[in-house]
Design a protein that fits this description.
Elements: E1 2-4, E2 15-17, H1 24-36, H2 47-54, H3 60-71, H4 75-85, H5 88-112, H6 120-138, H7 141-149, E3 151-157, H8 163-171, E4 189-195, E5 198-204, H9 214-229, E6 232-238, H10 245-250, E7 256-262, E8 279-280, H11 289-299, H12 310-331, H13 336-354, H14 360-367
Parallel strand pairs: 3-5, 3-6, 6-7, 7-8
Antiparallel strand pairs: 1-2, 4-5
């Protein structure tokens, strides 16, 4: 047993850590002995991290980072949670909050001190600077959220276009059945692939055509469903046949689409055009696969930082909205007290991210997603 005295401990309180063999019978026996004393109870979900927050060891954004780290299912998600845990976002928000507070106190000083004047132009410049800072965090929030959870990527196309061959080429091993007959893929095959620091959750799907029936028809319906949920679609086209009207119907179902012209080895002088940005590959020989992976990574660049937790995005968007109201009020030459109302609302939204003046219901909701003992 190791004693961790406060305030240096994780929670800021005196704690003791018991180490034992992982056999559940031994763990249960120790828990029963502790429980029999009547001096202890089982921890609630996230209680240790909640106590760390309450005792000022970390702010709420960092506490959420612990939950994000626990729940991360991708390598990229782990890195993003670790960055949040180190306080990168908290420090940026703290600076924004200080700047906002300075603007507010400057305006309020003009209410009581005759010599103090409020300069609309300087206030506008200061507000614009904070808006730009918020925009830099929100600009890539959607992409950041996808990078955290993993990019849902679907390989789709007409039957016998070479979807499973592309799927196998990207994976680097034969995961899906490849056959010259069409309709061999009847169900969705899922695999996780990581490259360029990004996790792609791949789905190989049944070829989509309107005349299918039986099991193949069920597979096609599953394909359509997953297409609508996809962050990225690799739409495979037989380069020897080119894009057809039937292909056009299925393009654009996902959020982003890359047209993959397969069987390029059979088409030395393409007679059929493709959409701009299409990638030409030969899954059979592995030609062009690196270009395809590069095109995929370029759509979700790791260098673009942004908030990835929905609560943070919401509160930052709310702060920006009220800063915009303040700017409009300045342009309309409204009285200083009107400006202060909008600025204080924006300031409160930013403070809420760190956990200042937050309601108990919000706290309970945040920590309810944690597991016991974290």
């Amino acid at each position: 047993m190791v004693f961790h005295p406060g305030p240096q401990s994780y929670t800021g309180e005196d704690t003791a850590e018991i180490s034992c063999h992982g056999n559940p019978l031994l763990v249960d026996t120790i828990m029963e002995i502790i429980g029999a004393t009547g001096l202890a109870r089982t921890a609630e979900k996230g209680e240790f991290t909640k106590r760390a927050y309450i005792n000022g060891k970390i702010d709420l954004a960092q506490a959420e980072a612990v939950g994000a780290l626990i729940n991360a299912e991708s390598a990229g998600g782990v890195r993003m949670a670790q960055s949040l845990l180190t306080g990168d976002l908290s420090r940026r928000l703290s600076r924004m909050g200080e700047d906002l507070f300075g603007i507010i106190t400057g305006i309020e000083a003009s209410f009581v001190i005759e010599e103090a004047e409020h300069d609309p132009d300087s206030i506008r410049r200061a507000v614009d600077a904070i808006i730009r800072e918020i925009d830099s965090l929100l600009a890539h929030a959607d992409c950041a959220a996808k990078r955290y959870s993993g990019i849902i990527t679907t390989v789709a196309g007409l039957p016998n276009a070479g979807k499973s061959s592309i799927f196998n080429a990207v994976l680097g091993y034969p995961r899906a059945i490849v056959h010259h007959e069409s309709g061999t893929t009847r169900d969705i095959i899922r695999e996780r692939v990581t490259f360029s620091g990004i996790d792609f959750l791949f789905h190989d799907t049944a070829g989509i055509r309107e005349t299918a029936s039986g099991p193949e028809e069920i597979g096609i319906q599953k394909t359509v469903d997953i297409l609508k949920q996809s962050h990225l679609v690799l739409y495979v086209v037989d380069a020897c046949k080119g894009l057809s009207k039937q292909d056009e119907r299925w393009l654009g179902m996902g959020e982003k689409t890359i047209v993959v012209m397969n069987k390029a080895d059979l088409q030395n002088h393409p007679k059929y055009g493709a959409r701009e940005g299409a990638v030409w590959v030969s899954a059979k020989y592995g030609h062009g696969i690196r270009d395809l992976l590069g095109a995929m990574a370029d759509l979700f660049p790791m260098g673009q930082r942004g908030v990835f937790i929905p609560r943070h995005s919401y509160l930052l968007s709310r702060a920006r909205q009220y800063l915009s109201y303040c700017r409009e009020a300045i342009d309309e030459r409204m009285t200083p007290d009107v400006l202060v109302i909008d600025l204080k609302t924006a300031h409160q939204s930013i403070r809420e991210i760190a956990g200042d003046s937050i309601g108990q219901d919000v706290l309970d909701q945040i920590f309810s997603d944690f597991c016991v003992g974290k």
